[in-house]
Every structure is written in structure tokens, then in C-alpha cells.
């Protein structure tokens, strides 16, 4: 399958990917839906006449929510048409004038949040991460809480805090306890951290409170995935990459689900594979401009699948809306350089993480830029997610 | 101050109140902004020409968010104009034809969620409730967590779960641990509960992540308040009353803030009163139709004020949007009949709560209707909130 749009070998965005995003340009500040192809964005609103009329509204929208709400079969049809449009010999290939308006260089676009995020849930689904944190705070014997292997633990987050890659994050203030039993202190956060995560957007029609989405139906509810990196708490800056990769693009990289013992309840049991070999990396780049990859992890380290997360979310009474964001929780592997947070990499601040260029870190310092990258790769194909990055700004002085 | 619209003595909605809500009628399904007066709703869109043009869009909207975003001084001006319109001898009083369209009987309206709720935070600000729960789960010695008196503890909730009064709530399913150390069981929730709370809507322009709203500025950010009653977890049904009472209407019922010891940090310290004498009641009505008031509490039992909640929320890096909902947490008093949840009233299921009509409860049963009411009253005036109610539906069978 070959596109007429040039795709460099190292590109995250071959014709087999076609991730969705929302962009604008200097010449046209209107937010528009597009897919990335090589070093361009295809403006879907500009080519909507190649699609059935029932999709025109979603393709001309300024967020992905209308497309997300259309559901599984529509996503497949829209993707098929887009892929055909971008093939060598397509009608778009033959139409130079339309290409001029519809294919926008990536270098000239500003990316925006891809959706209006109704609600944001942050799960805690990596067994290595949960074990590491448990050992640090409760000791080896009680590392995993008793319910951890019975259900996918999750936390409500704050949708307002989700920002698109490139948005700087201000160091917050708060109360800390310098010494156990002493009085708390107030001031800038001292142990500022990132978490390496992946997230998926919920799609399909909204459900009502009390409706269930079974673990087998849940695959039809996963619109697409993106890297996500919250800075510590779930309300002050949760950075996502601007490109949402459809699950269809990840098919060649499906792997066995993480083995689960004990076997979960039937409402959480599924046979179909819903785990993926997605390589994940985190760079830290201090003010000196020298970036260091401090973590190399993989999506496949997740113990709980997205399908189990959805089934559990709804069985407990919760409704879903297209555009809801569900994050995996920090994805750590079992190797020491695969840990997805500074908390783990510095083992609660007991050791330094060495950076190229001579610096070292236990936690993030002001002006550090954190970048999370995700990509799948085999001999023939690279499917990338682009990156999610943010700079730490110093705390505002408190008057 | 006397309105030309009749207001029965027992009404929650005299001209001194004028709570905001969103309504529709059978004849006109359009959601519209209105204020309650006696047994009518004044359709603000229908009388918008009495207001400056800058308010027309907010008054003709289908949610309160535009009005909320206008800010403090606009709320005061809109309220003053509305009050004048409803006075005896006003232009509206003289205009019978306009009254016909603008004054809609409460008995003929359907009420809707008053705002698009961006995010929903549920605080934990009643010292009696936190102490009761602490005693039950951690013992008397460790009842309050060490940080509880230093900052207003809060939890992110799920905005999608907030429903307007009258919406039935389905009993959820989930995992429980019948015996400590045994395997968990899966099935319908056994200990289904309510929580008696109050909430406020955030107003004013949106803030950016990292911007602070100081404790002194925070009063300008409280658009109005309403009763709220989540059913247990924060994602399966959080019922709010349809009427949002402006803070201005509560002025005559201001009381001293709850004494705080130790004195909180300067960023949480304020001199102005922001506590209110609001009587709160909870009824349970089983299928037999006989309602029993099982709890009589008061808003003034809250240890932390709304101003402190806002200041803490933003100092830790979080942004605010008009329409965000912030709930107080369960409001229990110190008397045994003032506890705001069945967990406390039945003291973790160790005693029965007697109902009129012969039944008794430890937790909620299917088909129980829970109603929360709030009102202020002195010798001259009653300012009411209406009520927030919901019926418990049986769990859906699990196939």
C-alpha cells in the first residue's frame, strides 16, 4: 500500500497509520479535523465530498467528538475511504488543485486538543508500577493491595487539566510534611514528577447511567489511543499527544494479553487479544538543551486491558460519553530503566538518575522538558504516535 | 419587598430568593433559563429586553454557563433588574400579555441540569462526618487523618454522573469482600447509601492552569448553591436540585465560620463570613409511600468554607471553568439524628434506622426514594432550595 504523499522511512505516519487530530494554521485559525500522512495533514473537511453525506458533519467539525460518536463501523468506513484517497492513482492524486488546499504541511500547523473531553479516568493498570510504588510506601510484603488483581483500579481525574503537547506546566504549590509528625510546610512542590502513560478515547453513542458495556462489546468503544503524561496529581497538567491512532492501525502489533492470575470474574474475562507491542520512551531535556532518554518501556506491560477497564467502569454504574479519556496509569516494565516515573527511576529519591551533559535528577527541575514518545515497529512498518511534551515552569511566587 | 406574583407563605421562592434554573415545557421543548418566583418560573429569555443588551445572549441560553461566566458584578445587576421586574407596579406587572408568555406555572415545567458541568469535585469538609467515618474504619485514636485540619480534602468526581432531581438511580454491581482475607464476590451493591451534601457552581471567566484564585477573591467565584446527594461512589448518580440559589439570597443567613484550630496557612485564611445557616433534611420513602425524615443537619457544620476550597483547588495548579461543580462532602452535625448518610445513621450497619410505617433500614433498599431538602428561615423570610430526590432502581440482572 503506497501513498502518493511522500512518507520518509522514519515517519510516524505512513498510510497504514492515519491518526486523527485537530489542527489550525496561521492562514486559517478555524480548528479542523485531519489525519497525519508523512509530513502533511489531510484536512478531512476539505475532502468531505469523497465520503457519504452522513459523515460530512463529523468531518467538518472542530473536534473529534462527532466522529467518535458515530461508532465502530463508521470509523472503519471512513478510514477505508481516507486510505483510498491517499493511494497512488486516487482521485485526490489526480487533482492538484484540491491537494493544494487539502494537504497542509505539518510544519505549518498548530495542533489542538483533539476532543472535548467530558470525563477523564486514570487507571493504575501496570503491575510493575503498582508493585514498585507498593514496595516503596508499604513494604515488599504488602506491595499490591488485596483488590489489585481482582479489578482494574482507577481514579477520577480532572478533564480541565488535560492539555495538548507543547503546553508548559507550572510547578504548583501545596502543603508537604517535611518530617513525620511535624507541622506541614507550604511552598512550591518539591518532588515534581511525570508519569508515562497511554490513553484511549471512548467512542460510540453515549450510554446511560446503569447501562453496561460488556467486556466483549468494549472493543467497539475504543476510538483510538495516544501517549499521555500527567505531571503528578490529576488536576494540574495532563499532557496528551495531538494524534489519536485508531486501533485498526495497531492490528499488526497485537500481542497476547498479560497473563492474569487469579482469573478475573466473568464480567472481566475476554478471549480476544487487546494488548499491543508499543514501544514507549521518555526524554528529559534540561535547560542545557541535551536530551536524555531516561525510560524505555512498552504498552504490553499493562496487566489490565482497555476492554476490562471499560467493562468495570460501566458495571459499577458509570455512563460513558464519546470523548471520554481513559488513561492506563504509569506503564513500568520490570527492568530498572523501564520505570515510567522519576519516583521509581530515583527509587523515591534514594538515587540519582544520570543525564547526558553532566546533570542528574531525582525529580524534575524547573525548565526541564519532558517528552513521551510511542511507536510500533516491525520489519515492514512503523506506526508512530508522535510525541507528548511539556516544559516545567517555575512556581509563581506567593505574595 | 413584595412581588405581584403570588408567593404562598410556605414557598421556597419569595422575591428575595430568585434561584436560577433551566426548564422546558410540553408546548416548548427548548431548554430555557428562568428564575423561580412563588409557584411560577420567570422565563428570562422572554423578558430579556428589560436588561442591557450585553446580557441577552446569557439570558436566552439553554444552560446557565454563559450567565455564570459573566462574573460577580453582572450577577448583581441581573438580579437587581429581575427583582425590580417582579415588584408590584413594575412594567411587567402592567403588561398582562407579556406575563402570559413569561410567567410559566411551576406545575407545567420540566427541570433540567442547570449547567454543562465541566468538572465535579467532591470535598470532605464536615468535621463530624470525617470523624464518624474515621472512628468506624480506623478507630477513635486515628479518626481524623493528620492532614485533615490543614487543608480541605477533596476528590475528583465524574461530571457525567451528575443528574437532576427526579432521575432514578440504578443499583450498581461490583466486587465486595464478604469476609476479610477471603476471595471477593461479584454482585449487586449491598450497602447502597446516600450522602447529604450542598454544592456550589463556579462562576467568572475561566482561569488557566497554574493561575491562583486567592481566598479573598474566591467569593466572586461562587455563582450559587444547591443541595446535592451522591449515591455512594462518585460516578454512578449524583443528584442535584434544579434550582441554584444565588449567594446574594443567602446574605441574611450568614453566620460565623466554623472555628478552625490549628489556624490554617495564610493562603487559606479569610476574615469574611462565608458560612450559612441552611437547614438540611433527608427523607426516605419506601415503596409503601410513607416518608420519614431520617436526618436533620445544617450547612453551618462545614469546617472548611467554599472560599478555602477554591483557594486550595487553584493553588495546587488546577484551573477553574464556569459551570464547575464543587460539592461539600457529607454534612453531618454532632447529634446522632444529624448524620448525613446511612453509614453513619446505622453506624456501619450495627443498628436499624426506624421508619414510620413499620419498616427499618440499615442501608437503602430497592424502590426507596431519597429526598434532600434545604432551606433558610428566620421570622420574616424563608429562602428554600427546593429538593433533590431519586429512587433506587433494582440492579439489572447480570447475564
From TrEMBL, chains A, B:
The keyword Hydrolase applies. Its EC number is 3.7.1.2. Pfam families: FAA_hydrolase, FAA_hydrolase_N. Mg(2+) binds at residues 234, 238. The active site is at residue 129. InterPro entries: Fumarylacetoacetase, Fumarylacetoacetase-like_C, Fumarylacetoacetase_C_sf, Fumarylacetoacetase_N, Fumarylacetoacetase_N_sf. Substrate binds at residues 124, 138, 330. It comes from the Eukaryota. Residues 16-114 form the Fumarylacetoacetase N-terminal domain. Pathway: Amino-acid degradation; L-phenylalanine degradation; acetoacetate and fumarate from L-phenylalanine: step 6/6. GO terms for molecular function: fumarylacetoacetase activity; metal ion binding. Belongs to the FAH family. This is Fumarylacetoacetase. It comes from Culex pipiens pipiens (Northern house mosquito). The lineage of its organism: Eukaryota, Metazoa, Ecdysozoa, Arthropoda, Hexapoda.
